[in-house]
Design brief:
The complex is a heterodimer.
Chain A (H helix, E strand, L loop, with lengths): L5 E2 L10 H7 L1 H4 L10 H21 L6 E4 L2 H15 L6 E5 L4 H12 L3 E5 L9 H7 L4 E5 L13 H11 L2 E5 L11 H4 L3 E5 L10 E5 L25 H16 L1 H22 L3 E3 L10 E6 L4 H10 L2 E2 L5 H4 L6 H5 L4 H4 L2 E5 L6 H20 L2 H9 L1
Parallel strand pairs in A: 1-11, 3-4, 3-5, 5-6, 6-7
Antiparallel strand pairs in A: 2-8, 7-8, 9-10, 10-12
Helix pairs in contact in A: 1-9, 3-9, 4-5, 6-7, 10-15, 11-15
Chain B lengths: L3 H8 L12 E7 L4 E10 L2 E10 L2 H14 L4 H5 L3 H7 L8 H21 L16 H11 L1
Antiparallel strand pairs in B: 1-2, 2-3
Classes of the chains: A alpha/beta, B alpha+beta.
């Protein structure tokens, strides 16, 4: 085992910033009032929530009454899709989404199919892109919702959200985007993009876990997510997680202020890593679009080897990363995203995702490039697939 | 999630490689599901004197391959055929439930290599062909799922 710990999995989660923790702390022990209570310490909590709402709204160009706090990004996705589907089922039963959405969207859509809804899962190209024209062509008279993710969690590909938004607006169909990976990384303005609903998750941008938000454009017809109280304007009952809400807003505020500098750093680490891996390791494939890509995302497939073995060996060297192999997905199949971009199973099993963040440096990339090529070589030398390839040659 | 012994056999796998003049070679698994094991056996006077392997797969697949080669060495062919997937898993101080299929793969790799040896030496009894070793990974997974 290594004493080093280099964290390259910021798409999975991020550490909470110290300033964020500090902003949250008073709401555990001092300002613990229930925001629904009318006395002073209750009102203080209420005020903190409303300020947080205002902050989030400002960052994405929305009105504060259009921001609803949720328990997670997954909850925001579930609510957006089921909420619109159930409230508009008289109008239609058709939903359009893509084949590479996060499971929070795909499984929700599959659930709705079991409830009688019909879902079109648009295929993507080899880079993981879907086009506005594909969306337009899939629209039916009974289409009630389009849900396309802002940026993909595995391969980092950024979708043409503005163009899709334009089509949705022109056709008068609600447009939801799962922006869980994009928030804090990309500039997002819901007005310019014609987005009607947008999901985000705090722990992806250095905020606490267990808190997310859903932007819902004023006038969107959707059912309530939870019943049992007047919180979140009656649409999402539950005593608010005040400290986490404050943390989410603080984290988003910092992310938004530092975005340009943060992106510059991440893009530099990303591009250097992509170039060096391409230079130093043979039989590889970069997954995802080369330019339309999240600033911190690197995803490669290494032929002839399997992802979990690669992760374990990197872990032994103190590197934390991620893979789309079946062994790490807990199912028989490798990642649905890698299959959707056309990778054969055996190549999809050999994927490695590195996602950079605030705490990474060029020295971390130096170290990665020192340990990764020998690990790949070692696994290949153990691989009967590599042996077969070499003998064939 | 893995035992220390699994991690030991994963990080320092025993008997990795090929045997050029192997008496029996067996390959099982399927690239589609992410694990393939290839086992080489050197057999003298019905005793397995050397075993080597190559594996494409997860940590458990590598560790079970390594352990399987250790277990068969020094055993007679008949003794080796009695090695079960449970025996391989137990020798590794257990495997996580989702990884038990890897031990099936190890058992089948041993059988496939011995089967190959018997075929080459005309030792195959009528009807004794190994049927398991041609299974696709999916079948191995399914066997496990049903057991569960």
């Amino acid at each position: 085992m290594s004493d080093r710990m280099i964290y390259f999995d910021h798409a999975a989660t991020t550490p909470v910033r110290t300033e964020v923790v500090e902003a949250m702390l008073p709401y555990f022990t001092q300002k613990y009032g229930n925001p629904s209570s009318i006395y002073t310490i209750g009102r203080e909590s209420k005020k903190a929530i409303e300020e947080a709402r205002e902050t989030v709204a400002k960052v994405i160009g929305a009105q504060s009454r259009e921001i609803f706090f949720t328990g997670s990004g997954t909850e925001a996705d579930n609510w957006a899709i089921k909420g619109v589907a159930y409230a508009n089922r008289q109008k239609g039963k058709h939903i359009i989404t893509t084949a590479i959405e996060h499971h929070a969207v795909i499984h929700t859509c599959q659930y709705l199919e079991s409830e009688g809804f019909e879902v079109t899962y648009l295929p993507v190209d080899a880079d993981g892109l879907v086009t506005a024209e594909q969306v337009r062509a899939a629209i039916r008279p009974d289409t009630i919702l389009i849900s396309v993710m802002f940026a993909n969690n595995e391969i980092g590909t950024i979708q043409p959200i503005a163009e899709i938004g334009k089509v949705a607006k022109e056709k008068g169909i609600y447009f939801h985007t799962d922006a869980v990976q994009a928030m804090g990384n990309l500039n997002i303005n819901v007005e310019e993009l014609n987005v009607d609903m947008l999901s985000m998750s705090s722990h992806k941008f250095y905020g606490p876990k267990g808190i997310g938000a859903l932007y819902v454009r004023k006038g969107v017809k959707m059912t309530s997510f939870m019943h049992g109280g007047a919180q979140e304007r009656g649409r999402r009952a539950s005593t608010e997680n005040v400290a986490a809400i404050v943390g989410l807003a603080k984290a988003l505020e910092i992310a938004s202020e530092n975005m340009e500098q943060y992106n510059r750093k991440l893009i530099s680490l990303r591009d250097r890593t992509i170039e060096e891996i391409q230079k130093k390791v043979p039989f590889i494939k970069l997954n995802g679009h080369r330019e339309k890509r999240l600033p911190g995302n690197v995803n490669f497939s290494f032929e002839f080897i399997e992802g979990e073995s690669l992760l374990l060996m990197l872990d032994m060297k103190g590197i934390a990363a991620s893979s789309g192999s079946a062994c790490t997905s807990g199912s028989l199949d490798p990642s649905h995203v890698l299959l959707a971009i056309g990778l054969p199973h055996e190549i999809a099993h050999g994927s490695l995702r590195i996602t950079f963040g605030e705490d990474n440096s060029d020295a971390d990339v130096d170290y990665l490039m020192e340990v990764l090529p020998p690990i790949v070589q070692r696994l290949r030398e153990m691989s009967p697939l590599y042996e077969a390839y070499c003998k064939k040659k | 999630m893995y035992s220390e012994k699994v991690m030991d056999h994963f990080s320092n796998p025993r008997n990795v490689g090929e045997i050029n003049d192997a008496d029996g070679v067996g390959q099982v698994g399927n690239p589609k599901c992410g694990d393939i094991m290839k086992m080489y056996l050197k057999i003298e006077d019905n005793v397995i004197v050397d075993a080597k392997f190559k594996t494409f797969g997860c940590g458990a697949a590598v560790a079970t391959s390594s352990m399987a080669t250790e277990l068969v060495k020094g055993k007679t062919v008949d003794e080796a055929l009695k090695i079960t997937n449970q025996a391989v898993a137990e020798a590794l101080d257990g495997l996580p439930p989702v990884k038990m299929h890897c031990s099936n793969l190890a058992e089948e790799a041993i059988r496939a290599a011995i089967d190959d040896y018997k075929k080459k030496n005309g030792l195959q009894e009528e009807g004794s062909e190994c049927e398991g070793c041609c299974n696709k990974c999916e079948d191995i997974h399914r066997i496990y799922d049903e057991e569960e």
